[in-house]
Task: inverse folding
């Protein structure tokens, strides 16, 4: 099947040719005919399946350059908002539609200015609802509403915001819902707000012949040593190391750095600008290892991820699937490696229960047992010197602002008075010097 046979507009075909997309992905082949036909669609498709083009082609099909919001795409995270908006801009460049992106955590002025003449809006539910309430966003001309990564939006507690946004949309709109998993909540939402939706699904967007999934049965105390060994010895391109919590990311990042392994770290606790910069550095392959929480796995299309490590095992197979979906994309090879200790046993059993997943046990390699603590305690943090703070700066892509955030910084390291008298000033100047050097 060729793209032209799906009925996609010629201007979009031109972009597809420029992008060298040879033939439609399964989700595109299945969903685009319904989407172009104006039907409501529920599509079970995960990141990397090519779903952006599946709904993008539909949006471009019925929207005109009118400087009125005709399409709204709701996504769970800011990173995904940027990514989807980028794709929409690309796909609609010969139709001259204006796409704008809105999400929280950044200033409103520029977003409000851009919204004035936008045809397509991509954003996260909180900020979109905020603009609707303030009457900055008017949805009366809306033709298409897309709920992207719907399962994630619900998992993240956006259900009420999403419902309020849906209610602000005209009734005679087209609704397209994309979700990696179709849970009862998703079905309920669809029943409530969609009209005779067509259902399409793709089996798996990861080509099993390209993805090797295996696990190591490892002692919790030796987990870090094994990770460090694998990171040093595996022949890899880009690597993502998933941890369960922000705190785990902080600790593992610090420990890897202390082993001389160049890494970046990201989690939802970082300010938005820093998160964007870190992802950019990772995508540009400046530093090839990213230690992260699941936030980074949500919907992002990062090219060239050859290895995914589950340092902590997620408790649901859908999170595991989201994670491994970062690798073996677009015909490339990938490895998903889980480090399973007795602490992860129960979670891992859940994952193994999924009949679609085939994860093989691998024999432990010979590796050096590193004698470093498994936990970095706050008391330890208090005693580390300036050298290590600099180092922390490099871990996180050089974005720790010691000057302005002095108060917060002191609080988190629990050494308020000493820092106030001496360290604060030192960091201030240190930061500026470092900043210049970069
Ligand atoms: P998405 O799931 O929309 O994030 O798309 C995942 C990646 O696949 C993106 O980098 C797209 O540019 C790419 N892509 C989408 N459709 C195709 C296609 N038909 N052929 C090749 N690559 C594609």
Result:
């Amino acid at each position: 099947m060729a793209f032209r046979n799906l009925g996609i507009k010629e201007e979009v075909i031109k972009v597809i040719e420029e992008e060298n997309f040879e033939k439609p992905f399964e989700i595109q082949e299945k969903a685009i005919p319904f989407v172009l036909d104006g039907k409501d669609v529920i599509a079970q498709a995960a990141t990397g399946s090519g779903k952006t083009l599946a709904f993008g082609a539909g949006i471009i099909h019925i929207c005109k350059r009118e400087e009125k919001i005709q399409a709204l795409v709701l996504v769970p995270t800011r990173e995904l908002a940027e990514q989807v908006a980028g794709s929409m801009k690309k796909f609609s460049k010969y139709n001259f539609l204006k796409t704008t992106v809105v999400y929280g955590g950044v200033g409103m002025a520029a977003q409000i200015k851009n919204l004035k003449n936008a045809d397509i809006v991509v954003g996260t539910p909180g900020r979109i609802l905020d603009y609707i309430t303030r009457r900055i966003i008017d949805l009366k001309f809306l033709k298409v509403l897309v709920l992207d990564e719907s399962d994630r939006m619900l998992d993240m507690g956006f259900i009420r915001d999403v419902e309020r946004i849906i209610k602000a949309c005209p009734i005679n709109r087209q609704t397209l819902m994309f979700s990696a998993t179709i849970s009862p909540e998703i079905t309920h939402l669809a029943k409530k707000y969609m009209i005779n939706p067509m259902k399409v699904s793709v089996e798996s967007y990861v080509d099993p012949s390209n993805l090797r999934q295996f696990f190591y049965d490892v002692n919790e105390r030796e987990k870090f040593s094994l990770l460090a060994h694998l990171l040093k010895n595996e022949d890899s391109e880009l690597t993502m190391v998933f941890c369960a919590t922000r705190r785990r990311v902080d600790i593992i990042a610090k420990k890897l750095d202390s082993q001389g392994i160049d890494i970046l770290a990201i989690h939802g606790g970082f300010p938005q600008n820093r998160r964007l910069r870190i992802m950019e550095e990772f995508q540009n392959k400046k530093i090839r290892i990213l230690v992260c929480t699941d936030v980074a796995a949500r919907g992002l299309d990062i090219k060239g991820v050859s290895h995914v490590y589950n340092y902590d095992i997620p408790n649901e197979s859908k999170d595991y699937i989201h994670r491994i979906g970062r690798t073996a994309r677009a015909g490339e090879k990938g490895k998903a490696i889980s480090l399973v200790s007795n602490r992860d046993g129960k979670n891992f059993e859940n994952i193994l229960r999924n009949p679609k997943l085939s994860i093989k046990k691998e024999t432990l390699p010979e590796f050096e047992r590193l004698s470093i603590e498994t936990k970095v305690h706050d008391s330890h943090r208090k005693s580390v010197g300036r050298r290590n703070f600099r180092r922390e700066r490099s871990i996180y892509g050089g974005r720790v602002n010691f000057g302005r955030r002095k108060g917060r910084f002191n609080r988190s390291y629990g050494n308020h008075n000493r820092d106030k008298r001496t360290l604060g000033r030192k960091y201030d100047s240190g930061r500026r010097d470092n900043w210049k050097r970069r």
